[in-house]
Structures are given as C-alpha cells and as structure tokens.
Amino acid sequence: MNPRKKNSFYKEQYRPQFHFTPEKNWMNDPNGMFYFEGEYHLFYQHNPFGDKWGHMSWGHAVSTDMLHWEHLPIALPEEDGVMIFSGSAVVDWNNSSGFGEGNQPPIVAIYSGRRNFDDRQFQCLAYSNDKGRVWVKYSNNPVLDIESNNFRDPKVFWYKETKKWVMVLALSIERKVQFYGSENLINWDLLSEFGPEGAVEGVWECPDLFQLPVINEEGKKKWVLEVGIGIDSVAGGSGGQYFVGEFDGIMFSPDLNYSDENNIDHIILADRPTHKALEKCNWVDYGKDFYAVVSWSDIPKSDGRRLWLGWMSNWDYAQEVPTAPWRSVMSIPREIRLKKNDQKYFLVQQPVEELKKLRSLILDDSNIDIDEIHSILVSSDLYEMECEIVNPELASLTITFNSTDDEFTSLMIDPQNTKIVFNRENSGIVDFNPTFADQMSACNESLDYSKMKIHVFIDKSSIEIFINDGIIVFTNVIYPTEIQKSIKFSSKGTGIKLSRMSLWKLDSVWKN
Ligand code: FRU
C-alpha cells in the first residue's frame, strides 16, 4: 500500500496539510536532498523510536513535485553505536567512486557518523544503485576523521572547473567551515577554511555553498555560503546567516569584510539587545523557525533552479511543541536567487511555482481602501494570500491573522523606523516554552515602504511570510486553538490602498 494513503495520519489538529511531516516520531534537519529520474528525494534527521531527538537515522521520502510525498523505509539507520547525523547526497554521474553497478550512476550519500560513546564525529559514505531505495554503508567508513567531536554536516557538490568534488562542512565549536576536495568521494584533501565571521554566538552547523543568479543583473552570478547558527541568531535560538562572495574551487572569499567594525550592513537588528556582529550579518530568515536549510543537489540544467527547504523549528523548543504523534515539519520548498540593492547582494526566496497547483481562488480584488480597518473573511486553516500595498504617507500598517478576537498573529510594517515586526505572542498555545511567545523584527532601510508586496502561506500550524519578493522572510510555527477566521488590515494613516489582493484556499497534499 502506498503509505501516503493511510487514513489514520494527517488528520490531527496541528497536522500541516501541504508541508512535509513524518507520519510519527521526531524529525529535525533535511538531509541528502537530490533529484534523480523525475524524483525529488528528501531525507531527514529522524528518531524512529520516539518524539524527541535520539537514535538519529535518515528518514526518507520521494516526490515528483516537492509537495506530494511518498514515505519510504528508513534509508540509513543508527547502527553499531553510530548515529547518522546530517549530510548530503549526490548523483555520481561518472561513477568516480566506483560504487556503481551496470550503467546507472550510483547515488552517494555523505553523512556525519556520530559515535555514541565518546561523541566523535567523522564523515562516512553510503551508496545506492537502485534510485535511492536500498542504501549500503561503505565498508571502509569513515572516509574523513580529524578526531573531533564537532566536525559535521558535509554538503558535497561537483566543481567542474577543477573536476573535483568539493565538501563544505562545519567545525561547529570553532565557528568555522572547512572545504575539502576529492576526485572520487573517498579520499579527501583539505582545501581551505572560512570563519569565524559574522554571527558567532551559536555553534556553526549545516553549511551549504552554491552559485546563484542575480535577478537584476543580466548574466551575473555570485557564490553564497549559508551557515546555520544553533543559538542566539537574529530571532533568538536557531537561524541561518549567509555570506555572498566568490569561490574558486579552493577558497571562499566574501565580498564584505564582516569583521570590519566600520562596515555596518544595512539590515540591522531592532528591539533586541544587539551586538555588533549580529547587526552586520545577513539573515536568511527573520522568523524563529527556519533552520538547517539545505539545497537540492542535481536539479537538471533544463530546470536550472536552486531549490531548498529548512526545518521549521528551533532548538530552543523543538522537543516541546504540542504536536503528536509527530514532531517537526519542513518549510515549503523555495527557489533562491540574489538581488542587488545599494551595491550589495541579498538572498531572495520565493515559494516554488509548484505550489500554485494547490490553489482555489477565493478572492481577487484591486484598489481596496484601508480606512482604519479592512477585514477579509477566510475561515480556512490552509490558505495563501498575496497583496500589494500602496502607502503614500508611509504610515504604519498592521496585518493580523485572526482565529478569534484575542488570538492572532500579526505583521506590522513600520516605515518610519524602517522595520517590520512579526508577533506571535497571542497566537494560541504558547506556554510550552518561555522563548516561544515573542516578537521578531527585521530592519531594512533600503526597502521601498511606499509599495510593498506581502505573500503569506498558512498551513494549520505555520505561517510563512515573504516580503517584497522574498528579500525578507518570516517563517514561524503557531498553535492556534481555533480555525483562522479573518485577515485584518489596520492603519491610522490615510490614502493606504491594497492595489491588489488575492486569496486562495490551498488543497491538502495528504488526502486520499
Ligand atoms: C543541526 C544538527 C546538526 C547535526 C544534527 C543532529 O540541527 O545539530 O549539526 O548533524 O542536527 O541531529
């Protein structure tokens, strides 16, 4: 039986309907994502035996559209006292590893083994010769061991100019990433290191490195190094920072010198005890629930997108969230590119096009005046809203997403202070951890506050907000006690209009 069709799961109160969740038990980081022969593969950090972190193994699912998932058996189980920590997988097109059989390229997973008795972390391989169904651990594991307890999360890609595989991975406690090179995925040589730079309060984890096109500079491409920060990131707890620069096959060189005290980035942290390094960082997301993000490998050239998704949770409270029988959810898949603003390059994230298949239009309107309060009825826990706001007076504007009058999340756009604030203090169940009920803010002086675009996805227990084509994103989980009833726009200014407003109900991907 196709496990997607099991009826007993996916009907629970907080169960996301168009996001990926395991049927039951614990999940954290996405791992080993690759595309091969029409299938997107998603592996994930999984405890098959309980709803808290432990016995880490790679859970596995496949999809033809990144939305409708079929669960597959555990790909890589904990074994012989070694847990399977995060990592990546690549299609070894030329069988450089020699693991291939017949004329199909092997798929090779590169993961961190974590020896349980002493916490030692080393890099290991496993391979599959049947489109990622059956996985064999390499008999000579580990392939890279520097006798460290904080050496993890290898992301591997093919760098064609030097004809080498490149591995980027974290020296977590040292707040560094290292780059290694290999011709066969088995023997690895150290190429260079990067860090500490930018945000260094939390441990560095789950790095990724790739080249992205710049949407407003024809033909231009730049390299982006993304690094997860375990704690004390921009919204509190886990989050992701990125560096834009160049990579030459050996070394990553950031455009900005992040350690230079005079070099203050224009995105600054508001309303929170600040420290210089945090203020200068580029943040992938300003919400609390977008961690360990990693991109898909081997997306065909004909598609050409760089696609990623993140773990929609936060180490501050992930093990306490009020969901059962599963814990944690992945974000919607997103396409990422760069945009040049004020001589700097910023990451922009957009929900993937595929999501449009789930839409049924509820409302499509234009030229709506916002006289103090404008309310729109929704009555659905699965919806998408996109609007364009014209704000000639640059007055502050609040959008609330209500389940009752007292239960809501809100987004405040405050042009005077060039900041945007997301608030989930009254979002429903918040008391399972003291860090959960909170406000988060992004300050950005270069946004055009007179014309804003807001794009929102609500799915039972999450809200993802993309602002101005994804230059600022807030990703958060929420646990409302009742269904979402309305969206309210309120402002004290005059002349504010929604020049366009569309609302769609979204279909569940888990129904029969
Ligand atoms: C990030 C992380 C990784 C590690 C994995 C263990 O969330 O801590 O660094 O490989 O989770 O589950």
Short description:
The chain has one helix at residues 276-280, and strands spanning 25-36, 39-47, 57-63, 69-76, 82-91, 107-115, 121-128, 136-137, 144-148, 151-159, 164-171, 176-182, 189-194, 204-213, 221-229, 239-247, 252-254, 267-268, 282-283, 291-295, 307-311, 326-327, 334-341, 344-351, 359-369, 373-377, 382-390, 397-402, 408-414, 419-423, 439-444, 451-459, 462-467, 472-477, 486-491, 497-506. The chain has 512 residues and is mostly beta strands. It has 2 domains: 19-331, Glycosyl hydrolase domain, family 43 (Tachylectin-2, Chain A, 5 Propeller), CATH 2.115.10; 360-506, Jelly Rolls.
Secondary structure elements and pairings:
Elements (H helix, E strand, L loop, with lengths): L24 E12 L2 E9 L9 E7 L5 E8 L5 E10 L15 E9 L5 E8 L7 E2 L6 E5 L2 E9 L4 E8 L4 E7 L6 E6 L9 E10 L7 E9 L9 E9 L4 E3 L12 E2 L7 H5 L1 E2 L7 E5 L11 E5 L14 E2 L6 E8 L2 E8 L7 E11 L3 E5 L4 E9 L6 E6 L5 E7 L4 E5 L15 E6 L6 E9 L2 E6 L4 E6 L8 E6 L5 E10 L6
Parallel strand pairs: 1-22
Antiparallel strand pairs: 1-2, 2-3, 3-4, 5-6, 6-7, 7-8, 7-9, 10-11, 11-12, 12-13, 14-15, 15-16, 16-17, 16-19, 18-31, 20-21, 21-23, 23-24, 25-36, 26-35, 27-32, 27-36, 28-29, 28-35, 29-30, 30-31, 32-33, 33-34
This protein binds beta-D-fructofuranose (FRU).
